[in-house]
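hey m, so remember when u said the tokens were messed up on ur end? i reran from scratch. heres the input so u can diff it against urs
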Amino acid sequence: MKKLMTMAFVLLLLGACAQTETRDSGPSVVGQEISYEMDGLTMNGYIAQDENDFSKRPGMLVVHEWWGHDEHARNSAEKLAELGYVALAVDMYGNGKQADHPEDAMQFSGEVMGNFENAQARFNAALETLKDQDNVDPEKIGAIGYCFGGSVVLAMAHSGADLDGVAAFHAGLQLPVMPEDSIDTRILILNGSADPMVTEEHVSTLTGAYESISADYQYISYEGAQHAFTNPGADSLGQKFELPLAYDAEADSLSWEEMKTFFNETFESDSD
């Protein structure tokens, strides 16, 4: 009996240690689907946050690639939540629609960006949904986007959206709205030097426009990185559809670190 009691005590002690390790291991990130409406259309997003942090903190929007709201966007939202943000991976197509083929992706993304007022309405619906979360500081909002999503967040910044900063990864730079007046939003563009979808002319046109209005921007190009360099699924998609897509682990890591520094500085300056 004494031996059994000793073993039980040891098991209880081990269990307590395990619980302590879990509790002290960092943020406990949870993600859940969230739906919001825009003119009768249901948008199916995904929100991620630390379930044990009830303080007001910055909110981040994540805009998907032209394939639609997918795991890449959701994974990014979870990574942002690990950094202390409340992150909403948005749905720009409605009803969580995804493309299975580049032709569909081109059609879906063209329908959104071809009607910029509609694109703004969809983006703003997600923005207001994020601001309405109890633990989000509505005065501290940022956005990141990939490919199509990168173009979206840049265009929204140009149009005066209420964003402190935006980070665009492998974004197209031919935008429906170019910067003409002053921009309050800080801008970070992270592209690959080997991306055939972004020409030197595209870069010089956009950065020249930023220079002309003294915008707070950075343009970083990663040597040898191709389009979609942040998406681990890019290689298989590129091979399947014969597209110039390729994952680049180094560029992915470096660009994410650059983004972290950018938003730390952005939200710290807001606190001054």
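this time it looks ok to me. The CA atoms of residues 32 and 109 lie 25 Å apart. if urs says something different then somethings off w ur setup not the seq
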